[in-house]
Amino acid sequence: MDHRKVTEMNALPPDESANSLQLARHILHSVLESYSGPVAVSLWNGETIVGKDSSPCRIIFRSPAPLRDMIMHRNILHWVESYMAGEVDIEGDVEQVLAMNDSLQAFEMPWVKRLRLLRYAYRLPPAHATDSIVERLSRRRQANSRSAIAAHYDVSNAFYRLWLDPEMVYSCAYFKDINQSLARAQQDKLDYICRKLRLSPGQSLLDIGCGWGGLVCWAARRYQVRAHGITLSEQQYGYALERVRRENLQDLVTIELLDYRDLSEGVSYDRIVSVGMFEHIGIDNFPRYFGKIKHLLKPSGLFLNHGITSDTAWEDSLTTRFINQYVFPDGELARLTHVIASMQDAGFEVFDVEGLRRHYMLTLRRWVEALESGKEQAVEIVEEATYRLWRFYMASCAYCFEEGTSNVFQVLAGHARQPIFIPLRRDDIYQTGEAGNV
User: Domains, the chain, ranges and CATH?
Assistant: First the structure.
């Protein structure tokens, strides 16, 4: 929703508007009196309360209602809902808002002052637009179900194409340095996975959650393996099928709209990979997930699991509620120790673990930059509230990866107590250099 429409909807009579401005000034000066960070704060009349015009980030309250929520609830979920509804604008570096929220959460004030602010907030008008945005974009689904996958991945292929790389890879890239392009870093990631799996011609590869087909097509084209990709997203499925046909890989690549739990028990694979799908499994389903993969993997096979982890093990918080309600309906992250223990319990031996936290921070920032650059096109494809949701979500994830509360790991494993057919050292996965030189 256009912020100008929100401003018009919340237009107040002159006396009431002046009163709201005065209340807003009192609230912001009280809450932010000790804040000296890089975020500027402005009101709907253009008045800047905190910060300077040169600040790298600016929060603009387009109506009094978000200030009411800020005092009544004091949590970032209400800020984000107001932002999605257009009652708040964020200009510049969105990550700075997360840092500001951390300082606000740590801020304590005497109960007398808090009571006075509550009286001020109660006198402000409530939101008009937020409830409809919340209802439309809220997403709660069963873990790892088609409806949950569709809620996130079937937004629009055209929308994702605006800010993903040409390979359409929606997972952490692998950067040589901070100046490398996202396109090359994603190619390097695809090839790095193939080298970790020690792919060779004629092998069979299963990609669980194959997305738009980037990895299976890369592996088939570069390593001449027979690749089988599965996804629960109908839009990804259609795109991947067309991609296989367009790249003339029909003899090497098959794509199915299929749940991993429904894979045939009579088929086995030399290599199995899962990239960015693991977050949808649900911690309670780890035994079934790893057990199924172990059953499908040949005795001498290798399995690579690429997934995000959380230091907090997805404990109930404002952040987890926001993500589950608006972004990943079934998202649930575990600690790395829990992931590895679950793999071992299923009968895997872990050969290699690599953390890519900084790489995902860089990836997310490139996605946000591309999305912001394509805002006009994005809003033509999806409503502005969806654009705002993705912008804030990816920026907040970048903040979490930089802060270290989130991480992403590639875990390479094989059957426990089986002969190991990989080299003693990791030198071989670095021998071919960048993807462009393969």
Answer: 3-137 (3.30.1050), 146-437 (3.40.50.150)
